[in-house]
Design a protein that fits this description.
Layout: H1 2-19, E1 37-38, H2 43-49, E2 53-54, E3 58-63, H3 69-82, E4 86-91, E5 101-104, E6 109-112, E7 120-126, E8 132-152, E9 157-161, E10 165-167, E11 173-175, E12 184-188, H4 202-207, E13 210-211, E14 214-233, E15 250-251, H5 259-265, E16 273-275, H6 280-293, E17 296-302, H7 310-314, H8 324-343, E18 346-352, E19 354-355, E20 366-367, H9 373-377, E21 380-394, E22 397-412, E23 420-426, E24 430-431, H10 433-443, E25 448-450, E26 453-456, E27 459-462, H11 464-473, H12 475-487
Parallel strand pairs: 3-18, 3-21, 4-16, 4-17, 17-18
Antiparallel strand pairs: 1-2, 5-6, 5-15, 7-8, 8-9, 8-14, 10-11, 12-14, 13-14, 19-20, 21-22, 22-23, 23-24, 25-26, 26-27
Helix pairs in contact: 6-8, 10-12
Length: 489
Amino acid sequence: MIEKNIELDKVIAGLEKRFGEGVIIKMGKSSKINIKTISSGSLILDKALGGGIPIGRMIEILGNNSSGKTTMALTILAQFQKAKYKTAFVDLEHCIAKGSYIYDAKKQNYIKIEKLENKEFSTLCFDKKGNTYLRRATCEFTGNEFVYEIRTQYGNNIKLTGEHKVLTDNGKIKKVKTLKIGNSLFTPISIKSKPYSLKLSKKDQSRQKHIHNYIKCKITNIQKSKTKIKVYDISTQEQDYYKQFILCNNLIVHNSINVEYAKNIGVNVKEMLLTQPDNLEAAFEIIEALIVGGGIKLIVIDSVAALVPKAELEGDYGQVHMGLQARLMGQALRKLTGLVSKTGTTLVFINQTRAVLDSFGYGPKKTTPGGNALKFYTTVRMETTNMGKLEGSTSDGKLRIGNKTRVKIIKNKMAAPFKEAHFDIMYNKGISTSGEVLDLAIQYRIISKKGAFYDLYGVAIQGRENAKIYLEENKEILKKLQQEVKNYK
């Protein structure tokens, strides 16, 4: 028996000499087997995952549109940044706006705000009667002007000074600073639309939803912040004349990720690296370089569906590339899986779902783009689902303020799979910490609930949303309750 052990030791020593130290290890004596985790940013999701997001592994977040995939990815990214790790975002959908644009209505093209210093352009303005016309305008970098960023139900972001006046759906001209969430106003359909001069009468406004290239939008969020840019009208010498007009084409790119939203989630956008490769091959070359030499600990890839092979980009429309993306994905993942483990880099892939049309009633009803390789190489796969809307009461009635979200752990190599996490995603805020703490505190019987009333350390609050607001306004109580929830066993 002793001779056999000596022979085994010689074999192991020879293998370590050939392939490097640690090529063969005893599992009980190795620290490499103990995989570290980091919080996902959600208490409920951490418990479902068995501790959190594993470091040095591949993660897939999949789901339908507007189900919270990007919010989850950005929340995870914010947690890595809090732990002082370097992070990167691979934006294959080219949906992150690198700057705001102003539409030159005369030349019918868009100018980046960063390039507008000492430049003039023509903008579309409303007068007090609702007529639209062109005005010459220019930009000035000030740093002292307060700007209101208005977000509408269709995703438009409009930046205006508080003194600008907008055309509302009832035909009235209101100052931006007097607007409230729930009010409606007219905006361009998208940044790609080409505005023309038109007259908006009260009759048209009440009768039609769409008026040429303009659409009536409800305001879902208003944010006040300082800006370095002031846009003003120079067609007259009166200094305050520009305040009478709405410069309605000063928009962030349509359907872009809201940088302010990322900041509210906790992302340090100044420290986050951003790359926007044009094809699949370039994307994985960049990812490999960042893993090997960049010291990056988290890379978010948005999204697998947008990983387009170079041959497909250079080919003709209708040309078939059977399985090309899947083959390249398999090759790339085979190369990366060893690298992420050695360097401790976590890859988070955002993926979309597609309906399976030829199932004939049997088998799965949906699938994901990119082939099957990612399903095998990932350590954790999470499926997000929008379970319904959250409504809040305002002076104008009920208004949608967020979504109820379910995350199902459909694969987990770190803990038991098929667990579910339910939490709220609030618009412009992200995952609701107060809602999670409240739900877990009820589940663990740390606080009591009778009917619609929550007993928060002697204070009775009616309604879940009101209880969440109370916790958000009383940070010390929220912190105390959160600690009790974390310490519960």
